[in-house]
Amino acid sequence: MSDAEQGDRRNFSEDYLAERAKFIRLETLRLTRIAGAGHYSSTFSAAELFAALYYGHLRLDPANPKWENRDRFVLSKGHAAIGLYPVLADLGFYPPSKLDDFTRLGSAFGDHPDMKKIPGIDFSSGSLGHGLSVALGMAIAGRMKNHTYRTYCMLGDGELNEGQIWEAAMAAGHFQLQGLVGIVDRNQLSIDGPTEKVMSVEPLVDRFTSFGWDVQRIDGHNLSAIMATLAALKPAGTGRPQMIIADTVKGRGVKYMELSLDWHVGNLVGDDYDDAWAEIEAGLQPFEKEDA
Amino acid sequence: MSAAGQDQSTLFRGDEGELRLKNAKSVRGTPAKAMPAFILGEELADLADNDPRIVVATADLANSSRARDFANRHPDRFIDFGIAERNMITAAAGMASCGLVPYVATFASFAGILAAEAIKTDCAYPRMPVRVLAHHSGISMGFYGTSHHATEDLGMMRPIADLTVVCAADANQLRAILRASVDHPGAMYIRLGRGRDAEVYGEVPADFALGKATTLRDGTDLTIIATGSQVHASLMAAQKLGETGMSVRVIDMHTIKPLDGDAVRAAARETKAILTVEEHNVIGGLGSAVAEVLVDEDRIPFRRHGIHDEFSLIGPPAALYAHYRLDADGITAVAKEFLQIN
Fold first, then answer.
1. Do B99 and A137 touch (CB under 8 A)?
2. Cβ atoms within 10 A of the Cβ of B53, count?
3. pTM of the model
4. Domain A11-281 falls in which CATH fold?
5. Best interface-test mutation with B: which of A133, A177, A240 has the largest number of B CBs within 10 A?
6. Rounded Cα gap, residues A284 and A254, in angstroms
7. Which CATH architecture has domain B214-339?
8. Confidence class of residue B197 from pLDDT cuts 50, 70 and 90?
């Protein structure tokens, strides 16, 4: 496939992508209720990023999930897979009904994704700190095999505490893997508290820049900003790997979950479920941080 | 196009140095051709001549494993990841997911212990065809000390589902293992010595099969089941015991997982006692694996020989092997004590 074709991504409207982000949040509610517990807030922070990547950007073929020159996507923060499964079903990788027994005994779909069981999952994840190394290897393979695909890796901000991330970041800069694209879902919280209190990860732009990356920082809930940034990515080739720091809000879309430490894992029942559903359906409201 | 000013064909290499021979000089008593690790790069380069999927990576140890020999012949398929073993093994899994067959070489203490979770999570669980070449295993690093010894790695690898675990006894067997590995399904942990093992196999064993133990010597009084570096020493011990009138079977249990249970059960039926010998803690390695088979069988006298749950002393390897009775004389003595022979 030529570079010109590579630039020929699906071109959906922002309104459509916003609808798909809403769909991701609603499906996360539905599937969590089946499981009895789930990662709402880590998925909500990534909803616009998932929507933009999968409906507007990645070069994929759901009818041929193993297509050799497809773009790769590694969900290093594997606990947000609950937001990715409905997208893959929606795109046609498998029937949506496959999710109806989400996490139940024998289901292919667990809290963390399994590439051997789920079409469209390019690599299994769950153990934090591994994904960027996996993506690094995919990008190296792409270069060795003269493919033009890009490899995308979505990282959590808390997982940047893991040392292996920086081993991979160092290698990507050293090998000049321009086709490697990192996306940090900078949702500000890890489990025990704000990242900057638990184990600070900033200054992220300076850190990745010093490891040899091109780094951009954007609003990770602003679909036009996300789409413009993705559209401007350089093709696979020799040059600095590309990092997008997406500033997001953990729990975005359900007011009381936003930047709350109580909802990393949870289960909504009764009226709470219905209220959250209605709030998500109403669409994103301006984010206001409550005074501490 | 090349921002780094490098030719892409050599972009993944470390330094451009040619093969250095300084490590090959002070070899005690064994001919150069009998150095398993030293044929590693050459054999993989031969295999890669006909198979574009094969790539080799190391973590700043291209000379220790002679992966450099591969790099010199296939520079575009060699990657030096620097001193970052976990990143190397996980990245190899990513490469494998794109159709490559990566062979990654580093010291066993860093491959099988430091990077154990990468082997489990990224190689074995998704059944990626990554071949981890864990060289300088056991106590073969001698006076470099406990940080560089690996007497726990088999114990860490064995419980990992869908992982094949193999130990090479010498250079020719290593060639057979590498040839058998190319199309073997799933991930492999291949345990090597320091490249100075004495010759067990005069030529590349034609009948080698993963998971199928090799009986090197038949006998009825005792079976010694050995693996890796201890196969040669056990054969020599069997010869010494033979000179005293004992009939000793020697089994090379090169594949630790899946273990050849039939060979163990046959030994239990056909010989009077079983002794396992390994350059590894007796907890978790070959002895444990054999015990797990024997526990379901009728009682038979059984002993494990190896490192008995301690961090090894430091010292020159030959001195350590003598101290821990992991040489011919030592194994002979252990066998006599076990069978209560004077």
1. no
2. 20
3. 0.92
4. Rossmann fold (3.40.50)
5. A133
6. 8
7. 3-Layer(aba) Sandwich (3.40)
8. confident
